Amino acid sequence: MVEPLPPGHLLVLRPRRPDPTPPARAFPPSRARRSRGRPSISPLVGATGLIAAALLLVGQSAAATQASYQIATLKQEQARLSAEHDQLLAQLAGDRAANRVATAAVQLGLSHPSRWQYVHSTQSPIALGPRPQNQGRSGVWDGVLAVLGAVIGRPLNSQPTH
């Protein structure tokens, strides 16, 4: 129990003095005990490495996306150029065929007319059939002769020749 102090008496508390001779330790304090008070550098290095890796990943993703856009653009250009190449090859083949026809025509003694010419169909060797003229005859007979002339290759006249 605590004894009561007489009235008017002050109680003074003094801090305890350390012993002048600390006890001897067999081992120095462990590293974990020494570093408890200050923060370690390894979490800071780990966080920096993690941020750097994330930035590297984002950069690689952006580069891959840009490369895929370039690939798509180049594929479209290749398709356009391939179509143009095919069109030019077809035009070249047509020009060569026209040149062969022109060369053969020159060898046969044909030439281009200087102006358009009109050829009457009655005297033309490529007339397809007689002119339809009904002079009291039925149109059936003229139709039969036109079909027969088309099969034979020469026009047949149903009109009497003079």
Describe the SSE topology.
Layout: H1 31-34, H2 42-107, H3 139-152
How would you characterize this protein structure?
This protein has 3 helices and no strands. The protein has helices spanning 31-34, 42-107, 139-152. The protein starts with 30 loop residues before the first helix and ends in a 10-residue tail after the last helix.
Short synopsis of the structure:
The protein is mainly alpha-helical and 162 residues long. It has three helices and no strands.
| Overall morphology | rod-shaped
**What does the largest sheet look like?**
none
Strand content: under 5%
Number-wise, the strands total 0
Taking all residues together, what is the mean pLDDT?
Answer: 76
Rg measurement, Å: 57 Å
Structural class: mainly alpha
Instruction: State the end-to-end distance.
Output: 169 Å
Poorly predicted tracts of residues: none
Secondary-structure element series: HHH
Helical element count? 3
Helix content: 40-55%
